[in-house]
Amino acid sequence: MRAPSSDLPLMFVDASIVVHDVTILDRITLTVTSGAPTILIGPNGSGKTTLLRAAMGLVPLSAGRITWGMRDTDTPPKRAIMFQRPTMLRRSAVANVCYALAVANIPRMQRRERAAELLALVGLSEFESRPARRLSGGEQQRLALARALARDPTVLFLDEPTASLDPYSTKSIEDIIRAVSARGVKVMMSTHDIGQARRLAGDVVLLHRGRLIENTPAAQFFTTPHTKEARKFITGELLV
User: CA–CA separation, 231 vs 29, rounded Å?
Assistant: First the structure.
């Protein structure tokens, strides 16, 4: 188990992103603490991916701020993100992980052993020599998770990691997320799948049109949601 990270809480304070007069995030105030996964839900275009990318430092804020561990200036090096459609390098599965380890400045002599550990964690040990681009979609997603974990992150951002996967592959990814979370890594993940949110979430953040609609513990969100938008989304109605 990892000790609680001094990089948490992650706080968004009136965080806004405006691009060409279009508001993508609208004054988001949110605190993310250690524990079970924080799951972002909401319709397409609600701002889920942008929020994750902003937390990762990939998209600048137009206004407001993001703080880590109550600090305004220090951004933690041990953050990692896995995108919905990760690109596989033209090399073997184990070489993909070794490349990620090299980028993370892991000494060369340690990379092969560490890569084997990560492939075992995601259930890909038997495929280590297979070209990454010849893996199935679900296997590629698991490999992408192994690469993200190469940074030994304290916080792991996942953007729709099971979109378009079959149920078996989805379960495999969810099992890895549970294992990673049990090790003390804070997972913040977006999904459009209400069932997945029920299975994984410690707390739920509902976004709509770039605004934070609701942020509550999962049990409360699914039994007694506070807002009409949350009630509609849970029952499968469209938010427009």
Answer: 21
DSSP state of 125: G
Helix extents (H) in the chain:
48-56, 93-103, 108-121, 137-149, 167-182, 194-200, 218-223, 228-234
- Which residues, listed in sequence order, are joined to residue 10 by a DSSP beta bridge? 32, 68
Cα 187 from Cα 184, distance rounded (Å): 9
**Going by DSSP bridges, is the β-strand pair 63-68/10-19 parallel, antiparallel, or unpaired?**
antiparallel
Q: Give the torsion sign (CA, 212, 75, 103, 116).
A: negative
- Give the model confidence (pLDDT) of 22-33 as tens digits: 999 999 999 999
Ordered by where they begin, the domains of the chain are 1-78+155-240 (3.40.50.300), 89-152 (no CATH)
Backbone dihedral angles phi then psi of residue 15, each to the nearest 5 degrees: -75, 125
Residue-level pLDDT at 5: 62
Q: Are 117 and 133 in contact (CB under 8 A)?
A: no
Strand 155-159 and strand 186-190: pairing?
A: parallel
Query: Whole-prediction pTM value?
Result: 0.94
